[in-house]
Specification:
It is a single chain. By secondary structure, the protein is of the alpha+beta class. It has four helices and seven strands, in the order αββββαββααβ. 30% of the residues lie in helices and 40% in strands. It has a seven-stranded antiparallel beta sheet. Helix 3 (91-106) packs antiparallel against helix 4.
Length: 141
């Protein structure tokens, strides 16, 4: 089993603009999945979502999630992070994380603009605290 502290795992998760595919359970128990922009932050992964979105409501109800990031070309690879989501609406943390996420996906030139746009009331900071990490860096081998 891998760990988020493993440099190879952190490098893979932080490389380029790979999206995470977040899975959670709907109110009816159906499994759902959606892509999210995220960053590795300390001992967890962080993304933002709206408090009143399907994701936001589901995570408030049941914090158990899994996030999978993959490499879609040879040698094909993935890291799956299973854990629990911690939610926060703290304004300074929301601005910090939204700006860091924007820098990764929109570039440094647009980070502040997109960070401010996304750090508004009704948005959440979601910190995924890993419980289990699985990784395979060469699925063709």
């Amino acid at each position: 089993m891998a760990a988020l502290s493993d440099p190879e795992v952190r490098d893979f998760l932080s490389h380029g603009t790979r999206t995470g595919k977040l899975s959670w359970l709907s109110a009816s128990g159906r499994p759902l999945v959606a892509p999210v922009w995220f960053v590795v932050d300390g001992d967890g992964l962080v993304f933002n979502t709206g408090k009143d979105t399907a994701k936001g409501r589901a995570l408030a109800r049941d914090p158990r999630v899994s996030l999978c990031v993959d490499l879609e070309e040879p040698p094909y690879a993935f890291v799956q992070v299973q854990g629990e989501a911690e939610l926060s609406e703290e304004p300074a943390e929301l601005l910090r994380t939204a700006t860091a996420i924007a820098a990764r996906y929109m570039g440094a030139d647009h980070a502040e603009e997109f960070g401010k746009r996304n750090a508004v009331p009704g948005e959440l900071v979601v910190r995924l605290r890993p419980v289990k990490v699985l990784a395979n860096f060469d699925m063709t081998g």
